[in-house]
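User: My instructor asked us to take a sequence, write out its structure as C-alpha cells, and then describe one feature of it. I'm not sure where to start. Here is the sequence I was given:
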Amino acid sequence: MNSFLRFISFLLAAAVVAIGTAPHAHAERLKDLVSFQGVRDNPLIGYGLVVGLDGTGDQTMQTPFTTQSLTNMLGNLGITVNPANAGNMQLKNVAAVMVTATLPPFARPGEAIDVTVSSIGNAKSLRGGTLLMAPLKGADGQVYAMAQGNIVVGGAGASTSANGSKVQVNQLAVGRISGGALVERAVPNVITQQGGTMKMELREMDFDTTQRIVAGVNNQFGMGTAMALDGRTIQLRAPDNAGEQVQFMAQLQNIDVKPAQAAAKVILNARTGSIVMNQMVTLQNCAVAHGNLSVVINTKTAVSQPGPFSNGQTVTSQQSNIQLKQDSGALKMIAGSANLADVVKALNALGATPADLISILQSMKVAGALRADLEII
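Assistant: Let's start with the prediction itself. The C-alpha cells for your sequence are:
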C-alpha cells in the first residue's frame, strides 16, 4: 500500500513539473491582428517642378511639358514669356516631377508629412534640387497638402562624355523630402456608426481567429461587447462619450489573443526562383523523376582561301554545331514529411535547382502529395 501511494505521489509530481515546464502558447496583441474601420491612410499625388539642378535636368526639346509648366508658373508670378521663344528655351536645371505622399489618419492642418519626388522626364539626377510649391490632391480632386523643400537623393553618379563610361549608385531620379508637405485640410475619420457601434477588421481573414478575438473581448468587457459579422469583421458596442471611446480602443489593442494556425502555403517567385513555405506544409509519400534538358550551340567562322593565281576571293562561312543534352532523371522516392524541417530535407535530397523545384512542387500539388496552397507571384 505504501508503495502504491509513493507511485501516485510520483505521478502527481511529474504532472506538476510537466505543466510548469510546458511552453506557453504564443499570443499576439490585438493591435497586430486587426484595424478599426474608418482609421486609414489616404494617398496623395501632385505635379511640380524641381529647380536648381546642376545641368542634370530635363532636355526640354524632348519633354515639352517641362517648358509649358515653367511658362505657366512664371506667368502666375507676373513674368511674361514670349510664346515664340518658349520652345527654344534650353533648361538644363529644371525637371518635371510627380510628388506623392501618404496622409495619415487624424492628420490636422499644419502637420508636416514626408513626400517622395520622382522624375517623369529624362532628367539624369535630382540631386541638389529644390521642389517648388506643389499642391497634393486626394482621390476626390481636393487639395489636402502643399509640398515644397530641398530634395535628398540617396545615391551618387559619375560619367565621362569622352568614352561614355558611367558609374551610378542607387537611383538618382527619385528623392525624398522629410516633412516636405504641410497638411491644409483634414480628412474626417468616422469610427462610430449609427447605434453606437464600431467595427474591427482582421488583416487576414480567418474564422477561427475571429471567434477567439470575440471571446477575448467579451471576457474582458462583458458578454455582448463583440459580435462576429463574418470571417473578417467584428462589431463592437462602443461607449457614447468620445473620450471613453479612445480609452476603449486603447484597451482593446492591448488584449492578447492567440491566433489560429495559418493555412499551409508555398510561395513561388517565378522571376527570381525563390521558394518560401510556412511551417504547416507537409508532404505525402511520392516518387519524383526530373531531368534537365539543355541545348548548346557553338558557331565557328570558317575561312576559304582561293588558290594561287586563280583570281579568286576569300570567302567566310558560319558553321554551327548543335548539341542536345538531356540528363537522365532517376525515379526517387520521397518519404512523407510531417514538419517543415523534414520537407526541406526531402526536397534538398532531389538535388534540383530552385527553378526545377518550382516545376516539381507544382507537379506534387497536382498529384496530391503536397498538402499546401501554391501561390505564384
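For the description part of your assignment, you could build on this observation: Helices lie at 2-21, 64-76, 83-86, 207-221, 242-253, 340-348, 354-367. Try explaining in your own words what that tells you about the chain.
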